[in-house]
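REQUEST FORM: STRUCTURE PREDICTION
Request ID: SP-0412
Submitted by: Lab K.M.
Chain count: 1
Length (residues): 336
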Amino acid sequence: MAYGDNFGEHPYVVGVDYKADFFEDIRRRLVIPRFANTTDLEQRKGDIVDVTKLLDPSLVTRPAEGIEEDEGEEIQTEHLQFVLRRYNRWFPTYRHVVKTAEDDVLKMTRKAARKQIRYSMENLGANIIRGGNSVFHADGTVTGSVATTVRSGMIKVAERYLMNNEVEEITEMQSSSANYEMMPLDSCFIGMCDGDIAADIANLSDAIKVENYASGAEKLPGEFAKVGKVRFLSTSFLPPTLGGGASVDANDYKATGGKADVYPIIIFGQDAFEFGGLQGESDLEINVHNAKVDSADKHGNKGFISWQSWFGGMIREQKAITRLECVAKTDAKLGA
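STATUS: Completed
RESULT:
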């Protein structure tokens, strides 16, 4: 972070507190990245990031006999890569910013920048996890044939897909603190979807709504229900493909141009995806430049706040993530 009298920025001690609070607030509100495997990004900004994935070892089917020496086996790995890319933006400020805690201009601009970073990183992560090659459609075998809402059987099919692939259930996720600790979870798979689909899932006969969880059970960010082994979270970053499905009655189902809006529901277990970005304060740069009288700004009216960060990622294990595609009931239909 840039400070110093030469540029009219905050005093150093104010700037350090500002950045720490800024960073922790973003980390606390992120959802999708908290379930990702993470890569150490030190010295890797702008580079291709290498990830080594352990492949399943062979089955041992023959018992050892007598003093016979057991067979050795080389560990099999696969080397994957993703590109770490830089993202940035700046906001102008039109009068001198004096103190972090008291100045209204800085407060408002800081809030805008926090939201922009968080929303951007969440959206980048969502675009990655919705791109898996395993998909189950509510109708037919392609997106264009989808015309009905999610059913319990679809969720069971997705759950069976993960279990048949020996995908381990999620037992921990990144905490909301900036200390990068892992917090334990009761063993489960995670499902994510747009809020328009949340009511359809919560109203399934075998769904347990979050308000009916056992006393003391901790609610995950955005969690609204559980079906079988899958805990469901809503997010606004998995929007539908507008008009991507089959013809439907727009009074009953959300549609565009008479065709169903197709919603993705992402369900995954351990090791499904890998992200890099916002793993440490060095991965986020914040600059506060106060307005200053000089030849370019003769009345000292123009300053700015800028941010710069890095993000990259990939689906690490295709068999550990799957997607359901369905439509959503209209508000009128839900209220009927």
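NOTES: The first helix runs from residue 12 to 29.
Reviewed by: T.R.
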